[in-house]
Structure prediction request, 582 residues.
Amino acid sequence: MNIIVLIKQVVDVELNIRVKDGALVEDGLNYVISSWDEIAIETALQIVESVGDGEVTLVTIGPDQAAEALRKGLAMGAHKAIHVSDAGFDGSDSFAYAKAFAKILGDRDCDLIIAGKQAQDTDAGLTAGMLAEFMDLPQATNVTKLGQIAADKLTLHRGGDNGSEVIELSLPAVLTVNDSLYEARLASLRGIMQAKKKPLETLDLAGSGVDAATVGIAGRQTVIDQLVEPEARQAGQKFEGDEEETTKQVLDLLVNEAKIFA
Amino acid sequence: MTKILVVAEVKDSEIKKPTLELLSYANSLSLETDAVLIGDGVSGQADVLAGYGAKKVYVADDPSLGLYSTSAYTSVVADAASQSGASQIWLTSSETGKDLTPRIAARLGVGAITDITKLEVNGDNIKASRPAMATKVIQECSFTQGGVRVLSVRGGALDVIPADAASADAVSLSIPEKDLRAAIKEVVSEAGGEIDLNEANIIVSVGRGVKGPEGVDLVKPLAQAIGAGFGASRAVCDAGWMPHSSQVGQTGKVVAPAVYFAIGISGAIQHLAGMSGSKLIVAVNKDPDAPIFKVADYGIVGDLFKVVPILIEEVQKIKG
Ligand SMILES: Cc1cc2nc3c(=O)[nH]c(=O)nc-3n(C[C@H](O)[C@H](O)[C@H](O)COP(=O)(O)OP(=O)(O)OC[C@H]3O[C@@H](n4cnc5c(N)ncnc54)[C@H](O)[C@@H]3O)c2cc1C
Ligand SMILES: Nc1ncnc2c1ncn2[C@@H]1O[C@H](COP(=O)(O)O)[C@@H](O)[C@H]1O
Prediction:
């Protein structure tokens, strides 16, 4: 079983996110593999280990420094990586990335493409579904559990609106993973050493075969005009001390000020 | 010409509220609007959609559409879009909407904007605000090229404006063949709270601070006494103390009730992303520095095992 995992290097949303003049303040930002994409790597490794043969290939489109994310994924156990890096991709939206991936992955031999349910920087959740449509592949998004794993077929659960939807998916197909699927493994020291010797292919726009007019500012269909800070919630009142007393105080406020039981 | 196609969602033979929100909004702007209705035994709902302003209702009603399927639903919506000649397709950002939106957009060869919390529509010019980076920023987005505008709006972002009774101008759509490559076997529903978190006016949620299933059982009567929905953090769902359908947060349900009780929840950004839109937040946590207190209107610093029984007793007194 050959699996391609789309991983994106994103700003670490836990730390130092500030907005100024409609954009992120670059100073102090930290870059990591998007959380859901780490789980996508874990999922691919689990499937290959369960089937007992095959390779996991990581693919990213991103700047030079995104190579770090690929090295980290290789250290987790992925077999090889492809880094598509070119300023021509700057400003792409999910549509443009999906178009590019359709071209880049179009003639690669693979049984399964796995992505995150959404990227941590965009929270869009569009790339994988668009890619599946462009490649005319079946999809299962928001996968929460894997059942039977065979060479040509997967049984899985996806989190749906009315419960867990049980789907039998024939391969090739596209999956996106929910974070409850697996906990991503940590790279071992041995893994980190081995990763240095694993193949990491770097392609520029021309080398990737992607038409420059379909990506970046020319190819995108949507744009972020600006970022603004969310309305900050004011921290309210904090009650410390004897629980009997503080609890009754708060209940009193809920009843008389907020009138929640009215 | 601007024309909206709303993709309707149905649950238990009722049109879901977020769908009514979309129709109400289109109606309030006097936009010409059609709807597409998909499912098994759903035809009767067409009149409801008409009442909320849908001029034409495209209906695909067939046993094969009873369970959601990406391929079949995409085909139906694409068919309705082409028959209606809509210049915009509006979906809700439910799990169904999240699966369907990219697929439809790609089929029409256009981009999409998802999970919108504020929408301004001026003809086919759209300004959409949406949270990103676990709600640490709000993106203001627009479309850059021609073509159909495909977008999804978060439930609760718009208001429902009560409708008149009407009878629908319904158009039957042909039923697509099943895609055997992704065969839907069944839907396993998890026994969750009795009150739907997305509809609940008050929610009581528990975190790892409850320590185990017994702790969950301690807090549940509080939700019952208040008549609240019962939710949880991911830590609680991952531990198997509550079903995943009760998870609140970025990967669980995004809720915005009038009052949200966070009991033994630390307030990680992914949890906050799912509940910080609540009107009033009450937190109980024994750690005075827990991040949840940064967003709580009323914070009780204390042991939940002492606080919750008092809350239950007092609420029962108030409720008589
Ligand atoms: C990609 C991604 C997506 C995620 N999505 C979600 C999501 O959708 N929803 C979600 O909730 N999380 C999500 N998480 C996980 C999130 O980061 C936190 O790990 C999780 O929310 C922690 O749950 P908790 O607050 O219950 O547990 P903890 O962080 O362990 O907090 C327990 C709290 O209980 C308090 N406590 C302990 N004992 C008592 C007591 N006796 N009385 C009072 N207080 C007590 C402690 O002080 C502590 O603050 C996600 C994480 C990632 C990486
Ligand atoms: N530039 C990229 N490089 C690699 N993977 C990507 C890229 N953009 C998106 N993806 C994949 O698509 C998923 C969803 O992205 P998005 O549509 O931005 O939410 C991510 O979790 C990744 O798996």
User: Anything to note?
Assistant: The pocket of flavin-adenine dinucleotide (ligand 1) is lined by residues A 35-36, 179; B 207-209, 233-236, 247, 249-252, 264-266, 268, 270-271, 274, 284-287, 290, 303-305 (CB under 6 Å).
